[in-house]
Design goal:
The chain is built from one helix and nine strands. The chain is mainly beta. The protein has two domains: 83 residues, SH3 type barrels; 32 residues, no CATH class. The chain has a five-stranded antiparallel sheet with strand order 6-3-2-1-7, with no helix packed on it. The protein has a two-stranded antiparallel sheet with strand order 4-5. A two-stranded antiparallel sheet has the order 8-9. The longest helix has 14 residues. The N and C termini lie far apart (35 Å). The model has no long low-confidence stretch (mean pLDDT 87). It binds zinc ion (ZN). The site of zinc ion (ZN) has 8 residues, from loops.
Length: 119
């Protein structure tokens, strides 16, 4: 079990970063794409803008003086999303390589193989 957790942690770090565009692989928003707002590396969850929304009751606050029901994006498990390669615009498996002493992600799609991160 511990080994499995480590693998997932590695997967999370390699695959997804804040600001990435991802596609949802399961749930009610399956197939939809959105931008990653938060990556929770310890719980292996990502929050994607506009995805997996749930209604939440909020108390009145300074930002929202009336309170009431708002839509909030719930985190989804990392295994339920896949990175969209910004170069080929397709769901991508990524690998890592070192460029200029920096680890960058590289798209593994056939015909693409482009570096995803700016170095
Ligand atoms: Zn690509």
């Amino acid at each position: 079990m511990r080994k499995f957790k480590k693998v997932i942690e590695k997967l999370v770090k390699v695959q997804i970063k804040k600001g990435d565009t991802v596609v949802l692989l399961s749930g009610k928003d399956k197939g939809k794409q959105g931008r990653v707002l938060v990556v929770d590396y310890t719980r292996h969850k990502v929050t994607v803008e506009g995805m997996n929304n749930a209604k939440k009751a909020v108390r009145p606050s300074q930002q929202n003086q009336k309170g009431g029901i708002v839509d909030v994006a719930l985190p989804v498990h990392i295994s339920n999303v896949k990175l969209i390669c910004p170069k080929c615009s397709k769901p991508a498996n990524v690998t890592r390589k070192v460029m200029n002493n920096k680890k960058v992600r590289v798209c593994k799609n056939e015909k693409c193989k482009e570096v995803i991160d700016k170095s």
